[in-house]
């Protein structure tokens, strides 16, 4: 049987945070812009950050997807 095919891709996330170092320590930062936003009438200083993270897409064969059919019983 052939090895599963894996393809590496990246996914970008853009978010607002007030602690840039904490939220970007383990990811690759594409862009970070200081921004002041208003939440419930209160001004908050923070960052609009865009990060890029690797994601692995794996092509699952029909045989592999049917391996456990009938074994798992979902009570829902």
Alpha carbon gyration radius:
21 Å
Query: Fraction of residues in helices?
Result: 10-25%
Strand elements, count: 3
Distance between the termini: 35 Å
Largest sheet: 3 strands, antiparallel
Compressed to H and E, one letter per element, the order equals EHEEH
User: How would you write the strand order of the largest sheet?
Assistant: 1-3-2
Structure, explained:
The chain has helices at residues 20-24, 62-65; strands at residues 6-17, 28-39, 42-58. The protein is mainly beta and 76 residues long. It has a domain at 9-53. It has a 3-stranded antiparallel β-sheet with strand order 1-3-2. β2 (28-39) and β3 (42-58) form a beta hairpin. The chain is elongated. The mean pLDDT is 80.
Topology, pairings included?
Layout: E1 6-17, H1 20-24, E2 28-39, E3 42-58, H2 62-65
Antiparallel strand pairs: 1-3, 2-3
What does this entry show, briefly?
The chain is mainly beta and 76 residues long. Helices cover 12% and strands 54% of the residues.
List keywords for this structure.
single chain, 76 residues, mainly beta, 3 strands, 12% helix
